[in-house]
Amino acid sequence: MQEIKNYVETHKQRFLDELFELLRFPSVSADPKYKGDVLKTADYVAQKLKDAGAENVEICATAGYPIVYGEKIIDSSLPTVLIYGHYDVQPADPLELWHTPPFEPTIRDGKIYARGACDDKGQFYMHVKAFELMMETNTLACNVKFMIEGEEEVGSANLGIFVKENADRLKADVVLISDTSMISMEHPSIETGLRGLAYMEVEVVGPNRDLHSGVYGGAVANPATILCKMIASLHDENNHITIPAFYDQVVELTAEEKQALNSAPYDEAEYTKDLDIAEVWGEKGYSTLERTGTRPTLEVNGIWSGYIGEGAKTVLPSKANAKISMRLVPNQSSEEIAEIFTKHFESIAPKNVKVKVTPHHGGEPVVTPTDSIAYQAAEKAIEDSFGKKAIPTRGGGSIPIVALFEDVLGIKSVLFGFGLDSDALHSPNEKYDIYNYYKGIETLPLFHKYFAELSK
Ligand code: BES
Ligand code: MN
Ligand code: MN
Q: In the predicted model, what is the mean pLDDT of residues 106-128?
């Protein structure tokens, strides 16, 4: 442990400088305008893997953005850790809400502010530096493979193909991912589940053109009003989702599982204060931790129609649109849910409008084991590094690759995240605490050490 701390102490400024350099690339995968930057980011990641001591580093082309691969195989009798992360980031909009520019990382109050600081550049780069540390101090205890992709934030559409085609190269005993959150640094935790996702876009079309709202209003159904009514009907008075068969495959937690989940620290007053809301909301009969971690949900992500420019325009719009996504839990299937959503949404449309439903990307839910050697290694690493026992929690977010790794390669994951829910992922002023960054770099080598020991 002291050797680890010494190495981090000696190289701490460079570790930060390199992360800053990585954060300066605007690697927004959703916006084609950044294509060149995304590709340059892949080059930088590949170079840094090489510098840290990885071999067979390759920028693997896909139909979309490339996957950066690198490995260090020291002994085929040792276990292999496959490290997954993503170098792409969410769009930074709305830009005017950032206190400092999103791609000029800035330190305030011990925190790094930048798009991708926590999700996921700051987090996957901890692995690159922990790997460098183990190489330089001759303490690498497991074989290591890196797979850092560039399309996570847009659904990882090409990753499935890559994983299938490279099943041999990716063979490993565990997938290690830092792309999730801890409760807090005082309450270190390990996520043991992720929700799935079914993302849909809907369009409601009324008259064949925008109309004068005085001349036609009252006689023609307004698609914006109809869309709002249709969306409002998707939850009942208990905030239960009304789509028939939506909950059919959902597994209820056992009383013990519920109890364990709800024993995690959660302060509702703090939660509502942080968000500036008077009270929480959700499905009747479930706690906040159950609602976000173990229950499926439906959210409107965007909604638009008619005139939204300056001033007023009296118009009855021809159409209205919305993006709607559903978070899924075991054993729901994103494909099935997309199908029943489509059927239901079409069925509730009144005759005076036409409805079009288009599915976007999806991802499957997962629960990761807590009785595996890998989970125990993560627990021991946290205990050493934090002096506390890790609390298992269920995450509300999605990382579609986790279920894929399990289905295609038969490898389970450990979600070893060091972020915080309050790090403003996907929001303006995303941040990552420098303390968490170094803490992660110090804790990860312990995982490798314990994983090798426990695998014997
Ligand atoms: N790192 C997040 C997922 C996450 C965040 C999991 C916090 C648990 C805690 C990831 O980059 C992400 O944002 N995933 C998307 C899904 C994807 C298909 C766009 C998400 O959850 O919305
Ligand atoms: Mn992420
Ligand atoms: Mn993300």
A: 98
pLDDT of 1 reads 82
Kindly state whether residue 408 falls inside one of the protein's structural domains.
yes
Which residues span the domain enclosing 302?
Answer: 196-250+296-363
CATH number at residue 450: 3.40.630.10
**How many A from CA of 199 to the centre of ligand 1?**
13
Residues 99 and 201 in one domain: no
* Calpha distance 359→418 (Å, rounded): 32
Give the whole-angstrom CA distance, residue 422 versus residue 271. 10
**Which residue has a Cα nearest atom 7 of ligand 1?**
180
Question: Is-catalytic flag, 152?
Answer: yes
Q: How confident is the model at residue 361 (pLDDT cuts 50, 70, 90)?
A: confident
Query: Is the CB of 292 inside a 6 Å radius of any atom of ligand 1?
Result: no
Q: What is the pTM of this model?
A: 0.94
31 has catalytic annotation: no
Tell me what percent of the residues of the chain surpass a pLDDT of 70. 100
CB-ligand 1 contact for 105 (6 Å cutoff): no
Nearest-atom number in ligand 1 for the CA of 421 is 7
What confidence tier does 256 reach under pLDDT thresholds 50, 70, 90? very high
Residue 336 lies in a domain: yes
Q: Indicate if 245 and 387 belong to the same structural domain.
A: no
Give the integer Cα–Cα distance in Å for 124 and 178: 6
- Residues 201 and 189 grouped into a single domain: no
By alpha-carbon position, which residue is closest to atom 19 of ligand 1? Answer: 153
Model pLDDT, residue 320: 98
What span, in angstroms and rounded, lies between the C-alpha atoms of 121 and 115? Answer: 9
| Domain closes at, from 320, 343, 363 | 363
In the 8-state DSSP scheme, what is residue 209?
Answer: S
Closest ligand 1 atom to 426 CA: 13
151 lines ligand 1 (CB under 6 A): no
Catalytic residue among 71, 88, 149, 442: 88
Q: Are residues 175 and 201 in the same domain?
A: no
What does the alpha-carbon distance between residue 300 and residue 281 come to, in Å, rounded to a whole number?
Answer: 15
Surrounding ion ligand 3 within 5 Å at CB are 119
Per-residue confidence (pLDDT) for residue 391, from 0 to 100 = 95
264 inside domain: no
Average pLDDT over residues 197-211: 98
